[in-house]
Amino acid sequence: MNFFVWLLKPSNVIKYTDNFIKYLVILLNILIFSNLIYLYFLGFVDYKQGFYAQIMFVHVPAAWMAIFVYILLGITSFLFLVYKHPLLIYINDIFAFLSLLFVTLTLITGSLWGKPTWGTWWVWDARLTSVFVIFLLLLSMLILRFLIENFYDSAKLVSFLGLIGIINIPIVKFSVEWWNTLHQPSSITLFKSQIDYSLLISIYGMFLFFFIFSLLIFFIYLKVVILELKYQSS
């Protein structure tokens, strides 16, 4: 508990994020250029889907990040309900925003990929519907934060919604195995993959780019919030 309080102490957050942000910006630029160069020389064109298959280099990592950040949201929601630390409210806000960003990107790229391969922009199958439920939950959380005037009441409600949404994560993950869906089963698992390693490099590379991007946005947002609160209290 003492370490947790020390970690969220505003002065410590400011102290340890200044240099960290600079390194993240450098790493982010390296990753985007290296990914673009690798994709250019890879020149991947699927024999069935053509150039459209390249959407997976954005769609798959975005889906991973959306779920990963939502799980973090669920954890911080639980911690806020237990410890009531005010900084956790802002952490929940940025996690909700980032998860919504990647869920939206997942849905858009999925539709762009689905039209030429499935012949339709959207189908209400288990995987797409469960992801859309997460989209609605996240959108509701951010709207409620603006609509409810009481700061702590809105934070409690959003935290409860965040915890409820965790139930949907296993459904998203295993929906293609539990039900007959138009969406294909997972091609990449923990112990094996049906995708060639040359394509996996780009998928993991984009996931790392999204991860570093999220870290950068997270720390910048946290720093701005702390400085703003410090200015308001002075």
TrEMBL record:
GO terms for biological process: cytochrome complex assembly. GO terms for molecular function: heme binding; heme transmembrane transporter activity. Residues 24-183 form the Cytochrome c assembly protein domain. It comes from Cyanidioschyzon merolae (strain NIES-3377 / 10D). The gene is yejU or ymf4 or ccmC. The keyword Lipoprotein does not apply. Belongs to the CcmC/CycZ/HelC family. This is Subunit of ABC transporter for cytochrome c1. It is a multi-pass membrane protein. The chain crosses the membrane at residues 20-42, 62-82, 94-114, 126-148, 160-179, 199-222. It is found in: Membrane. InterPro entries: Cyt_c_assembly, Cyt_c_biogenesis_CcmC, Cyt_c_biogenesis_CcsA/CcmC. Keywords: Cytochrome c-type biogenesis, Membrane, Mitochondrion, Transmembrane, Transmembrane helix. GO terms for cellular component: plasma membrane.
